[in-house]
């Protein structure tokens, strides 16, 4: 059966056939895009007018997200910025402590079980520089009996109320360093870094448990669908490492009603495990072959450092603008070639988390070494985040065939902080250097790193095009790119990075009928409103999925 | 109380050698081992009794092989064993922030027995200036209670001297011992709970180490113990002591390198007993006598 979808405009991202009004689909595959006359000849068909007032673009491809984005939204969100929810509602950003307390009181009142702990997500102290640190006394204003745990957006901090501290027997006698104290030596409720945070065992376990559930995966897929994404990475997944995770993923994605193609880039191992990377790479190759329509195992992820706003990214000179440098590698540089070589040889793609540019030097050197040992002309290994990529690094990356996956959402969410606090004006203006990457010939895409920031390719595109911050700065106007260049990065170039560009990322004869259906044309609207374009939904392999 | 030791140091320094040394040398002590790293677990084969899915059973303890649910969870699992370990030893990865791991040693029921950082004397001066790991290696050394300058048999004495000088200049407060294949006497590496056996006060004869003992018939105060501990100089690697009154309740002192811990404890014998261990030829027993006299008023 052939369906011809009519649209107001179809943008294909296929340079030889850039647009049309009709797309013919058979068995989930595109037969052709063009005018009705150009596609009607494929045979007997029905015309689907659902999208006749809408704009079809290739389904967005998100190159760096985490299923945790769906897991965390099982809990209330109390971040500074608005956050879309799986059901299509918007959680409004919390701009003051008073608003935080009000929101938490509402949640507390709505809970029926008086013993149930209240765990909320997304608070970030970096947006409240003029306030005292959030402490247990703030949260005790919400409840003195219900245990409350506020998990901060950076993942390294939490704040607990007195009841939560009591529930977990956290007393002032504990000499653990991360327990913040007031002037009198009493614990003030802020818990810094895992040794202190994990003391709130009850909350910690609930977070770990719920991030791995079916609901987490379904939320993740719903968020992606609502944002127009049809192919989404779970980058740094532990699907093959955690018990039953693989079965859970397979069972969900085998169902045609699952609205997303998930590209898994697993971590190679969890710490503590006896990890033989040769056999793990073999296992990954087997998994890759076992990939299905909606679940692929494409490669491996290595996390090499921390974050810029956490001051744990490893920076080249002149280092951090202000604040204390806690730059730290999370892998042993002398082992990296040995660790990555089995994956590289096996033809798996390697994505390397580098936030600091010194870390990125290490990644680039490592890939150069791998390529000398085992040539691989079409590896498409990718540096993900790549936020402080320098001009020299771009030139080298181009030579080596390395891709960049820029965290353009940082320009909005932390752009002002990078300018004022972390790296200073010059390097803040050079963050996520998309225009330079284009000029130097480095293939790139963008990402949200969801749940760090929300899934939303139109937002990541908007950041790359406008580079505007909440305080109204334009960070590095010379690094802005055009909407067409941004759409390319969010679709076909992201697919290229995942070695999926022959299947998805553009609308071409023989490729998957994966569309994002938009209320407006991102190439025609005023660039500042790209992120406000509404998403009608998606089409995945010819099947229609309406956004919530 | 369960002792908690962190073994840190950069790749190749000798952390696993030290861990094996720990496990083979300690007679009768039951270990729980956590390896906070990727890669093969290189425990001496004769120590391994059996291998399971997530644990390796040792002849004298076990290794928990999964930190996937977090470090605290792994510690909790060790504590929940039918016969919990008497000593938890953590081998950190080569780039780990050892100070952070050490914090788990402050959990209820545990006491931090020491952060041991192994350094390869052949590469120290290169690694501390390495653009990728220099800061990390410096932070490791700075967090160490005891730095073990390993592989001293493989280098020219002038290099060893340069290493000692660099350490003294860059980290003046850090305690340093040198070793070959991490072969250090256990009392240097680990403090024993003093109530176990009186004989453990006696430091075994050793060519490179000397011990100093001090006994008082009366108990001393926490402030006096603090004064004494603060007065110990860099030649003292470890010190321990107990002080008890007629009721049996009293205080325990544990010193490893720069770390001083004074805790209340019960079932302490009447009187005060102290022992310190230092490098032979360096530790100055006379000045320790003087320090004790100054701290405790000279009563013997």
Note down, in words, how this protein is organized.
- The complex is a heterodimer of chains A (548) and B (300).
- Chain A is α/β, with parallel strands linked by helices and 548 residues long.
- Chain A contains 20 helices and 23 strands.
- In chain A, a hairpin with a 5-residue loop joins strand 7 and strand 8.
- In chain A, helix 12 runs parallel beside helix 13.
- The longest helix of chain A is centred in the middle third of the chain and has 17 residues.
- Chain A is globular and about 80 Å long.
- The mean pLDDT of chain A is 96.
- Chain B has 300 residues and is α/β, with parallel strands linked by helices.
- Chain B has two domains: 185 residues, 3-Layer(aba) Sandwich (Rossmann fold); 103 residues, CobW-like, C-terminal domain (Hypothetical Protein Yjia, Chain: A,domain 2).
- Chain B has nine helices and 14 strands.
- In chain B, strands 3-4-5-2-6-1-7-8-9 form a nine-stranded mixed β-sheet, with helices on both faces.
- The radius of gyration of chain B is 19 Å and the shape is globular.
- Chains A and B meet through helix 6, helix 7 and helix 11 of A and strand 2, helix 2 and helix 3 of B.
């Amino acid at each position: 059966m052939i369906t011809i979808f009519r649209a107001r405009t179809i943008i294909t991202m296929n340079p030889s056939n850039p647009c049309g009004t009709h797309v013919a689909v058979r068995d989930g595959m595109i037969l052709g895009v063009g005018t009705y006359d150009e596609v009607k000849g494929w045979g007997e068909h029905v015309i689907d007018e659902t999208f006749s007032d809408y704009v079809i673009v290739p389904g967005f491809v998100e190159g760096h997200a985490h299923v945790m984005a769906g897991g965390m939204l099982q809990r209330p969100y109390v971040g500074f910025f608005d956050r879309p929810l799986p059901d299509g509602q918007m959680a409004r950003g919390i701009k003051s402590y008073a608003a935080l307390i009000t929101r938490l009181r509402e949640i507390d009142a709505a809970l029926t079980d008086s013993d149930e702990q209240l765990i909320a997500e997304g608070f970030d102290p970096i947006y409240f520089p003029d306030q005292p640190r959030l402490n247990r006394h703030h949260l005790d204003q919400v409840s003195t009996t219900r245990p409350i745990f506020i998990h901060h957006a950076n993942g390294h901090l939490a704040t607990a109320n007195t009841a939560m501290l009591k529930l977990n027997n956290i007393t002032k006698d504990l000499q653990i360093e991360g327990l913040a104290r007031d002037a009198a030596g009493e614990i003030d409720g802020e818990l810094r870094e895992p040794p202190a945070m994990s003391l709130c065992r009850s909350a910690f376990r609930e977070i770990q448990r719920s991030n791995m559930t079916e609901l987490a995966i379904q939320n993740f897929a719903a968020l992606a669908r609502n944002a127009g994404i049809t192919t989404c990475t779970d980058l740094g997944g532990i699907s093959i490492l955690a018990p039953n995770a693989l079965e859970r993923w397979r069972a969900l994605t085998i169902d045609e009603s699952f609205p997303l193609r998930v590209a898994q880039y697993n971590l190679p191992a969890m710490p503590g495990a006896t990890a033989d990377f040769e056999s793990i790479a073999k296992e990954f190759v087997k998994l890759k072959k076992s990939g299905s329509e909606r679940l692929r195992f494409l490669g491996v992820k290595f996390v090499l450092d921390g974050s810029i706003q956490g001051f744990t990214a490893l920076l080249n000179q002149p280092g951090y603008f202000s604040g204390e440098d806690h730059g730290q590698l999370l892998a042993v540089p002398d082992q990296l070639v040995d660790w990555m070589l089995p994956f590289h040889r096996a033809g798996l793609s390697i994505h390397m988390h580098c936030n600091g540019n010194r870390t990125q030097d290490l990644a680039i050197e490592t890939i150069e070494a791998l390529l000398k040992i085992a040539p691989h002309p079409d590896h498409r290994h990718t540096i993900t985040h790549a936020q402080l990529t320098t001009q020299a690094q771009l030139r080298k990356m181009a030579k080596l065939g390395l891709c960049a996956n820029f965290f353009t959402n940082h320009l909005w969410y932390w752009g002002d902080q990078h300018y004022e606090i972390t790296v200073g004006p010059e390097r803040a203006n050079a963050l996520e250097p998309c225009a330079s990457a284009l000029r130097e010939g480095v293939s790139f895409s963008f990402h949200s790193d969801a749940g760090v920031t929300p899934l939303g390719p139109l937002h990541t595109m908007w950041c790359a095009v406008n580079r505007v911050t909440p305080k109204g700065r334009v960070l590095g106007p010379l690094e802005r790119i055009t909407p067409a260049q941004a759409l390319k990065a969010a679709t076909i170039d992201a697919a290229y990075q995942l070695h999926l560009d022959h299947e998805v990322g553009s609308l071409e004869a023989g490729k998957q009928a994966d569309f994002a259906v938009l209320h407006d044309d991102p190439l025609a609207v005023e660039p500042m409103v790209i992120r406000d374009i509404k998403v009608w939904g998606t089409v995945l392999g010819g099947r229609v999925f309406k956004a919530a | 109380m369960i002792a908690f030791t962190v073994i840190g140091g950069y790749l190749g320094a000798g952390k696993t050698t030290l861990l094996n040394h720990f496990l083979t040398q300690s007679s009768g002590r039951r270990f729980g081992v956590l390896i906070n790293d990727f890669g093969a677990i290189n425990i001496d084969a004769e120590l391994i009794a059996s291998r399971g899915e997530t644990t390796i059973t040792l002849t004298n303890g076990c290794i928990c092989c999964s930190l996937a649910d977090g470090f605290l969870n792994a510690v909790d699992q060790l504590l929940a064993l039918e016969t919990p370990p008497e000593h938890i030893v953590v081998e950190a990865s080569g780039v780990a922030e050892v100070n952070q791991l050490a914090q788990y040693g402050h959990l209820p029921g545990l006491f931090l027995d020491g952060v041991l950082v192994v350094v390869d004397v052949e590469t120290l001066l290169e690694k501390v200036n390495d653009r990728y790991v220099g800061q990390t290696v410096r932070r490791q050394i700075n967090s160490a209670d005891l730095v073990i300058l390993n592989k001293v048999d493989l280098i020219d004495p002038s290099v060893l001297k340069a290493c000692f000088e660099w350490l003294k200049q860059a980290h003046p407060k850090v305690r340093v011992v040198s070793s070959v294949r991490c072969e250090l006497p256990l009392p240097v590496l680990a403090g024993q709970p003093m109530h176990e056996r009186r004989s453990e006060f006696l430091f075994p004869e050793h060519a490179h180490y000397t011990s100093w003992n001090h006994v008082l018939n009366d108990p001393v105060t926490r402030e006096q113990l603090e004064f004494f501990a603060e007065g110990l100089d860099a030649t003292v690697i470890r010190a321990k002591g107990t002080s008890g009154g007629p009721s049996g309740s009293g205080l325990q002192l544990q010193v490893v390198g720069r770390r001083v811990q004074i805790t209340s404890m019960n079932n302490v014998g009447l009187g005060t007993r102290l022992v310190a261990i230092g490098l032979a030829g360096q530790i100055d027993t006379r000045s320790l006598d003087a320090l004790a006299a100054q701290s405790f008023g000279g009563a013997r």
